[in-house]
Design the sequence.
C-alpha cells in the first residue's frame, strides 16, 4: 500500500504527486498575481507566502526523489506506443527537473536582490541566502528566469494533465486511477 | 511638554558640576540657570533608526527633515518640555526601493500623513546627565505613548546636545507590515542639537 509495485503506485508516491502538484500549480498562480497587486502590504505578504511554499516544494521534491529511487516504477500500459511513451517520460523528466530548478531560481531571486529580505519559511525557519551576486541586474535576470521557467513548466504540466484525461476518458485505461488509489490497478476498469 | 529626547537629565547641578570639571570649553559659561531656556532643534541633528531582521542585520536609516523646540527648566526639570516633528518623506536608507516602500501606504503613507509628531507629557531626571522623556507619538493618525532616554552629550553657552534613544513599537501606529521578518521594534538613536532661540 505504501510502496509502489510494478503495477501500482503506493500511497506515499500518490500523496507526493498530488500535494506537490497542487502546491506547484498554486505557486504559479500566486507568482502571477503577486507581481501584479498594487497594495504593497498585501504584496509583501504574498511574496513571503510564495517563498515559503517554494521551499516546501523544494524540500518535498527532494524527499520524493529519494522515495522514487527506492521504489519500483509501475509499468506503462501495454497499449502505449513508443512515441507516447517517449512523450510521457519526457514530460515527467521536465516536470521533475522543474520541481527543483524553478524553486532554486526563486531562491536566487531572493538571494540576489539588493533588498536582501530574509526568507522566514512559514515564520518558522530562516533560510540562508545563496552566495551569489547581489545587484538589481542579477535580481532582474533571476526573476525573469524564474518566471519563464515556471510558465514553461506550466505548459508541460498542462500537457501532462490533458494526457492523463485523455487516458481516462478516451483510452479508458487506469493511468489516472492508479495515481488516485493504490488499489486502482486491481479494482479499476480494465483496459485492452 | 516637549519631546525629543532626553535633553533634560543633564541639568542637574551635579551633572553640571561634572560637566564643568571635565569640559574646559564650556566651563566658563555654565551655571545651572544658564541652560534654562527655549531651544530650536537644529538641522545638524541626526535622527537615526534601525529595524532588525530575522537571521541578523536589518534596515538602518535616518530622517533628513525634522523640526522641533524644547524648553529646559533647570530648577524643575519636570517642567521642561519638547515638541518634535519629523517628515517621513525624508527617510533615507541608501536603498531607493526600501525608501519608496517606507513612504508608501504600507508604512508611513507620507502622502496622507506627512508628519510624525512627538509631544512630551512628562520628563523625569534619572541621573546627573540623563532623563526619561515620556510623551505621545502620533503617526498615521494614531497616537500612542512612547518613551525616550536622553543623555547630555554636549553643552555650550547657547547650544546643547542630547543623545536620545528609544524603542517604538510600530504596530501601534498601523505600520506592522513585514513582522515578524522585520522586528516590530524601531530603535531610534538620535543626536538632538538645540540652539537657544
Sequence:
Amino acid at each position: 500500500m505504501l510502496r509502489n509495485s510494478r503495477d501500482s503506485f503506493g500511497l506515499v508516491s500518490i500523496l507526493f504527486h498530488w500535494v506537490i502538484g497542487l502546491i506547484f500549480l498554486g505557486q504559479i498562480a500566486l507568482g502571477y498575481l503577486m507581481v501584479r497587486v498594487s497594495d504593497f502590504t498585501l504584496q509583501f505578504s504574498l511574496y513571503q507566502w510564495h517563498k515559503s511554499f517554494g521551499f516546501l516544494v523544494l524540500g518535498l521534491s527532494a524527499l520524493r526523489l529519494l522515495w522514487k529511487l527506492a521504489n519500483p516504477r509501475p509499468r506503462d500500459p501495454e497499449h502505449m506506443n513508443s512515441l507516447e511513451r517517449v512523450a510521457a517520460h519526457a514530460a515527467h523528466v521536465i516536470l521533475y527537473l522543474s520541481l527543483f530548478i524553478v524553486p532554486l531560481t526563486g531562491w536566487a531571486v531572493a538571494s540576489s536582490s539588493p533588498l536582501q529580505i530574509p526568507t522566514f519559511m512559514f515564520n518558522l525557519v530562516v533560510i540562508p541566502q545563496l552566495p551569489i551576486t547581489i545587484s538589481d541586474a542579477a535580481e532582474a535576470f533571476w526573476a525573469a528566469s524564474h518566471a519563464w521557467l515556471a510558465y514553461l513548466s506550466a505548459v508541460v504540466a498542462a500537457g501532462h494533465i490533458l494526457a492523463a484525461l485523455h487516458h481516462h476518458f478516451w483510452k479508458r485505461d487506469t493511468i489516472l486511477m492508479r495515481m488516485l488509489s493504490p488499489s486502482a490497478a486491481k479494482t479499476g476498469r480494465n483496459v485492452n | 511638554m516637549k519631546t525629543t529626547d532626553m535633553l533634560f537629565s543633564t541639568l542637574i547641578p551635579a551633572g553640571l558640576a561634572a560637566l564643568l570639571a571635565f569640559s574646559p570649553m564650556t566651563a566658563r559659561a555654565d551655571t545651572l540657570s544658564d541652560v534654562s531656556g527655549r531651544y530650536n532643534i537644529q538641522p545638524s541633528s541626526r535622527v537615526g533608526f534601525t529595524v532588525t531582521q530575522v537571521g541578523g542585520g536589518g534596515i538602518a536609516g535616518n530622517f533628513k527633515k525634522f523640526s522641533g523646540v524644547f524648553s529646559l527648566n533647570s530648577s524643575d526639570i519636570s517642567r521642561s518640555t519638547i515638541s518634535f516633528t519629523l517628515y517621513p518623506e525624508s527617510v533615507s536608507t541608501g536603498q531607493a526601493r526600501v525608501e519608496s516602500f517606507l513612504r508608501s501606504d504600507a508604512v508611513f503613507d507620507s502622502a496622507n500623513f506627512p508628519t510624525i509628531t512627538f509631544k512630551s507629557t512628562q520628563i523625569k531626571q534619572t541621573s546627573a546627565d540623563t532623563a526619561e522623556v515620556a510623551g505621545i507619538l502620533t503617526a498615521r493618525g494614531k497616537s500612542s505613548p512612547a518613551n525616550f532616554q536622553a543623555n547630555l552629550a554636549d553643552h555650550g553657552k547657547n547650544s546643547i546636545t542630547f543623545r536620545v534613544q528609544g524603542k517604538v513599537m510600530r504596530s501601534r501606529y498601523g505600520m506592522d507590515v513585514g513582522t515578524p521578518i522585520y522586528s516590530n521594534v524601531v530603535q531610534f538613536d538620535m543626536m538632538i542639537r538645540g540652539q537657544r532661540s
